[in-house]
Amino acid sequence: MSASNNSSSSASTFTLIGIPGLEAANFWLAFLLCSLYLFAVLGNGTIIYIIKAEQSLHEPMYLFLCMLAAIDVLLSTSTMPRMMDLLWFNSTTIGFDACLLQMFCIHSLSAMESTILLAMAFDRYVAICCPLRHAAILTSPRIAKIGLAAVIRGATMTAPFPIFIKRLPYCRSHIISHCYCEHMAVVKLACADTRFNNIYGIIVAFFIVGLDLMFISLSYVKILRAVLSLASKEEKLKAFSTCVAHLWAILVAYTPVVLSSIIYRFGHPVPPHVHILLANFYLLFPPMMNPIVYGVKTKQIRDRVLLLFRWKSF
């Protein structure tokens, strides 16, 4: 009974240690991460404002982009303020429930982002392969339902993470070797059999990242076939150019998370700070890069961003 009580009380708080081995560089790492975060918030906020204000951009591709921008802001905000507090002010203690809430936000928002990227691939498939039916298939109510489905899917698939972790006993170390409450980093602290948690994590990764990537790939196989069947080179380039920004967004979003997951589970020889830096990179790099990619590759957004800054300069 006393062991059980100790386990329960020991799980009231955790200690975040930041980036082990790079403590001397905490200030400059925090400065860099904060700069990336502010750039991500400013860039995605600008995208949301432009799409909301410009009636001509109320089309499926831009509405999905607006959802993606909102998710990116929330995803980076779920970790960065607490991370800055840790790296700049050495505030290492985090409450157990606060840790679970942060974990849920990170993983559910990442799942929502993956779903929106899949929806954007479907939009490009319909626009190129069934252009005459595009407006009829992707109506505003249907787009809203897709957004709601992304939220429900992300929340329901990742809600068991904190629920299962809350049931585990923590009678050993309470030190999380990370800058935030990442699922596997917390699971490794439990003094019980965690195979179920590991298996469920792999199942969620497969049903979100695995299935989404499979359907995205299938969409682009069909898109490529449709583009190659076009008569002129100009038509092919014009059709495929509408997909370039989305392809970059997919590459930026999935590459870090896949690498992070593989290294965390199988990369035992890799130094701990590489794990943590890569995990931070995956939470900040996509939110920072998406506004740049869509701003550079999408003429409609680029023109309105330039117009917005010209107007503010007068």
UniProtKB/TrEMBL annotation:
It comes from the Eukaryota. It holds the Pfam family 7tm_4. Its main location: membrane. SUPFAM superfamilies: Family A G protein-coupled receptor-like (SSF81321). The keyword Transmembrane helix applies. The chain crosses the membrane at residues 27-50, 62-80, 100-122, 143-165, 199-221, 242-264, 276-296. One of its GO terms (cellular component) is plasma membrane. It is found in: Cell membrane; Membrane. Belongs to the G-protein coupled receptor 1 family. This is Olfactory receptor. It comes from Chrysemys picta bellii.
